[in-house]
Amino acid sequence: MSQWQELQPTDIIVFGGTGDLSKRKILPAFYHRLREGQLPDSSRIIILGRAQKTEAEHQHFLREACETFIPEHELNEKDYAFLAQRVFYHSLDAKKIEDFKSLAAILDKNARPQRMFYLATPADIYGDICEKLHDAGVTTADSRVVLEKPIGYGLDSFRAINESVLRFFTEQQIYRIDHYLGKETVQNLMVLRFTNNVFHRLWNGDVVDHVQITVAESTGLENRHAYYDEAGALRDMVQNHLLQLLCLIAMEPPNDVTPDAIRDEKLKVLRALRPFSTATAGLDSVRGQYKAGSIGGKQIDDYTHEMGIADSDTETFVAFKAHVDNWRWAGVPFYVRTGKSMTKRYSEIVVQFKEVPHHIFADRPDDVCNRLVIRLQPDEYIQFQMMTKIPGPGGYRFKPVKLNLSLTEEFEERYPDAYERLLMDVVRGNQTLFMRSDEVEAAWLWIETLLDGWKNGAQKVIPYPAGSEGPEHAALLLARDGRAWHKISKGIK
Ligand code: BG6
Predict the structure, then answer these.
(1) 148: Cβ below 6 Å to ligand 1?
(2) Is 58 a catalytic residue?
(3) Fewer CB atoms < 10 Å away: N or C end of the chain?
(4) Same domain, yes or no, for 139 and 190?
């Protein structure tokens, strides 16, 4: 049962506050939480940006962000005014200590100890920001700092950035955000697995044939060209979101839902991932890059044309076969894929069970297995495939049928955006859905085995047309094992 907790009024300070993430996610999240009366009224949100702004310019920015990123039917003047009275702008250059001192003066006016510093900036300046916050006397014992992913470009840079933040904040004050963990359907994975006894004895290599994890996006670069060309799909999506999904599927039951109990179990999965070698990276992974194509009737240009560069070896698609080397999952491959500019936006996890050990019916269709499909977005549902007899005389004829549970139909509640849940968890001081330092480190360590495999094997990107399911090689990855990706369904039926 959830427990009621009295929340402290909080000053929320957003570095990179005029950027895309702030407009798309952070400000709308606060609009909703204030509207629900969850965030104490006297909390303040201070947006930081380099430019000097008049009050009218700030108001214009806030209104535009809300009108663009909050659905029309959820935005009303009364609630908007409530938000606007609590959002302030402060001009700050992250290189200038004087600007931090003037921030300190604003914050000290209320002398409110609970402060949330949200760093929505490139990760390489996290350490500098933390140092200046400390030197200007802005941090308090009750302060928390939120770090956006990806933290670093690899293991070494993660460690350097992490250490630079740990000089000024304790691990208990650091919230490494992975917004996938805040999604309702992702949290539901824990409930599905650990409250339904029926799965308890089925969730292992005796019964499970393989697992598929797909996060397909139909969007492309979305104004983040420079960042994306440096990062690529592996660092942008797999190192964090997809590995977290894999952990939630593969982990052992934690003893309880305290932050460390859960994070300890996820860490064990990350450490059990079989490292890639140059040979296995070449065989078991595919890198792709989208070329011109069309998505929903819209023409999409080549990735490199969108970037405005002649050539790039950055992957916008990645697929691989992973193994979790432990007792539970020995012999069970995890097939994982994600990509930009694919045919449709959808994320799902498929747990495919083994066929029965001996078929007593001669006439069986091809797709004879049981399969659990967990659709995470955009249409949230759980589907279980079973075999049934087609009614009528004339012997046994079979058909796979689906038991459907539509979560959106079952619950009429609005599905809050992941950031709403996560930002409130920071205010509450609950680190359960945030990544601990050793988790991020273990994820980088494993990701680097694949990056090294690609580098040493000079593994190039394979083109795929925008609006497709990625390069055909990704299908071969499974076909070679006598398997196939679960077909993209149009919805629950
Ligand atoms: C972000 C990535 O973390 O997640 C983006 O940086 C990606 O590239 C996004 O588009 C996907 O999130 P969602 O919630 O839309 O699936």
Answers:
(1) no
(2) no
(3) N
(4) no
